[in-house]
Amino acid sequence: MTPDELQRAAADHLLLHFSKQRLDDLLVLERGEGPYVFDTRGRRYVDALSSLFCAQLGYSYGAELGAAVTEQLTRLPFNTNWATAHPPAIELAERLTGLAPPGLTRAFFTNGGSEAVEAAWKLVREHYLAIGQPRRTKAIARNIAYHGVTLGALAFTGVARFKDDFGPPPIDVTHVSNTNAFRAPDGADPAAFCARLLAEVEAAVVAAGPDEVALIIAEPVQNAGGCLTPPPGYWRGLRDIADRYGILLLADEVITGCGRLGEWFGSAREGVTPDLVTLAKGITAAYLPMGAVLATDRVVRPLDGRVFRHGITFGGHPASAAVALRTIDIVARDGVLENVRALEPYLRDRLGELLALPIVGDVRGAGFFWAIELVKDGANGRFDQAERDALLRGYLPGRLLEAGLIARADDRGDAVLQIAPPLISDHAVLDEIVGGLRDVLTDAG
Ligand code: PLP
């Protein structure tokens, strides 16, 4: 199909995810190479968002990962993990739990992140039923956090406009403050900020009824709202609250896992072992779909001899598992985590230079996962709705593409621009990203 035919066919037949339908100028990407993607007219972009935080290795490992797929499809294209299992899923469960914070010994596979969050919730419920605490049916999550869109996962998501059309959520979730320090009155004092946030979590547990709360769910660095890093001690504090009230702690690492923060697991940076971890996106470097729930023995052991009443036909597909295994090998062989750790200070400093621009209020993040908070009038002013729409849906998306950059302008919280480059990016690629952002943001304000 020609580029024009593709545009027309997309408008007529393709339902887009989280997008206005019938876009006249749909970006159609047809090829990738290293950290770059190319549209159907041959235009090159730096994929500064790793295709929605997924493409950890960029786009040049197709031959190697494709060989893993071919090998697996030739041997055993498919079998389930329902009562039977296959070697790639078993090996992957062993490898991933070996990389995870100590104690996370069991893995359940899904096809993506929302399915992982829902599977984790069902595991939590089965755990409490098995230990004779059936009243634990509630959860604590954080404002603006995104944990997926299927109806169960949506209950944890803290973005009202994604939920309001779909009726009451099936899980009773209290949303508490997230860790956005930028506009918080005590944000400049990390200890006070941390203490206030944790007090709010504990108060929410007490208000919900401590013996009715099953789960606290949080991302090590919250994506929505713009790479909200936690103040020091926050995760230790969540762990303490969970332990004090017999609640399970889930680190949703769908974005922060698989090297995005320079570790296999973002929670390792916080020195805390959650009871459960959810993964997806980067687990296969996005060469095939996959998600996972990891859990500790404490969570799973009470289920021994019982049926876990949950299953997904394709969860842990052999080809996806084979790709995930090969991805783990590549990440180790090619020093991918080391690359992120070595370049994190460079990326932080280069993005920090943008603070000199009047439209940039804050730069925050970790690893290869950063946000720039945009402000009005060179002060910490907020844009009104019309200004936000003009900036985030009008000016920025178009100008970023003109600058040859795929990045994310987001308004689930305040106005932010996010980048998350492929983890194989070098100094030159990071410079190209920062240079493009500088041009676009200079013109914006
Ligand atoms: N959890 C987090 C933290 C996410 O960022 C996402 C997706 O962006 C999800 C869950 C849902 O994952 P998926 O889109 O694969 O269902």
Could you explain how this protein is built, in words?
The structure is a single chain. With 445 residues, this protein is α/β, with parallel strands linked by helices. The protein folds into 2 domains: 3-49 and 335-444, Aspartate Aminotransferase, domain 1 (Alpha-Beta Complex); 64-333, Type I PLP-dependent aspartate aminotransferase-like (Major domain) (Aspartate Aminotransferase, domain 2, 3-Layer(aba) Sandwich), CATH 3.40.640.10. Helix content is 40%, strand content 16%. The protein contains 15 helices and 15 strands. Strands 4-10-9-8-7-5-6 form a 7-stranded mixed sheet, sandwiched between helices. It has a 4-stranded mixed sheet with strand order 1-2-3-13. Helix 3 runs antiparallel to helix 12 (318-333), helix 4 packs parallel to helix 12 and helix 14 packs across helix 15. The longest helix has 19 residues, at 190-208. It starts with a helix and ends with a helix. Pyridoxal-5'-phosphate is lined by residues 112-114, 117, 146-148, 219, 223, 252, 254-255, 280.
Annotation, overall tally of beta strands: 15
Question: Tell me, what's the shape?
Answer: globular
Strand order of the largest sheet: 4-10-9-8-7-5-6
- Give the amount of beta strand, in percent: 15-25%
Mean pLDDT: 96
Radius of gyration of CA atoms, rounded to a whole number? 22 Å
CA-CA gap between termini: 40 Å
What's the name of the CATH homologous superfamily of the largest domain?
A: Type I PLP-dependent aspartate aminotransferase-like (Major domain)
Which distinct ligands sit in these coordinates?
Answer: pyridoxal-5'-phosphate
Order of helices and strands: HEEEHHHEHEHHEHEHEHEEHHHEEHEEEH
Uncertain stretches: none
